[in-house]
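Researcher: Please translate sequence to structure tokens.
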Amino acid sequence: MASGDDEGVLTLSSIGMRVSPEPGAIELLKRYNIALNYAINKILDNNLKTLKQAHKILYRDLVERFNLPSRIALDCYRDALANAKVWGRNPKKGKRPMVKKLSMLLHPGSGYRIKDGYVEIIGGIRLRIIGWDRRYDDYGNREARLVYRRDKMFLWISKKIPKPKKYTPVDVIGVDVNEHKIVYGDEIINIVRNTAIDRAYRYTRLAEKLQRRYSSSRYLAWRRRGILNRIRSYHEKARNILNDWTRKISLEIVRMAKELRYAVSREDLTNLIKSLRKLPKDHKRKLIIMGYSRIEEWIDWQAEKHGVPLAIVNPNGTSSECPICNYKGLEEVGYRRLRCSRCGFEADRDVIGKLNVRKKGLRKLKIVPRGGALTPLTASQMTDVAPNRWGNR
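Model: Translation complete:
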């Protein structure tokens, strides 16, 4: 993922480089972790707000007490101040933040450098590079984060690359997302992809089942530790399934738009969480796990990265309004199939949503499609596909 704060520049924050997990680096990460949590508590205790204040209180302690190299000590209290500020902005503050993962912030040049197939870290630590993404080698290295987890060590480097210039779109691809399917296309193209929620939810349920079964204190501590590792692996598996699917589907949508010189139109689903309280528990939990914000972020990022124009539209009425005559009294004539009693238009609920999202995107971007007005009554997806009337079987 990345950001595009600077005009004309994109900041990539996840260029991965796998390196050899040397004992010296692991020991430094452990010291850094202890120092980081110490610094977070000191910042909160003393209500420190600026780097100057943090430097005055923490720098000497981090160097002398925790034996951190000078540059890493600076990065440590910067890291701690950022963690403290994030916690302070949270309206539902719980316990004080405590960093458990072995992760260390590194500054380019004075904190780390890459030379002759090695990553050199201040303090004389050299990590052999095992593999990395070579697509961005021509761009300078910026801040990085060294992470050690499950006997593997990675250096995640941020880079800045030029932002591609956006073209003038000739049409719009509408994107409609629900729990089980994502539908995208225009008035003729209609592509349906299943989401990964059911596969991910299976691992979440397995994790919760183990947690309920083995949480009792009557089980031996060593056995609970083994079960805890399995529970964590199941939750991680569920996250990885959804993240992988989201990256792939967002890239697929944006690549199609770029090839056709279309824009992408998606719904603004930021307020969806408010409506979840009314849903059945199982359905609600699936939608929460699904993480619509994750899909939004990746579509937005891929569009920005590839120079594809993007329209974010209001979701109101996208699944209940006729895309042809704008009539809002659609009748259900089958399982997830709706018909307009005014003009006779009939289609799957998701297709109607896609067409309405596209129509709103056309209006927002002020695009007149090449075929003129939106009149898809002759499109194959509407007239040549047999109605899916599961409810009548």
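Researcher: Any highlights?
Model: The chain has ten helices and 16 strands.
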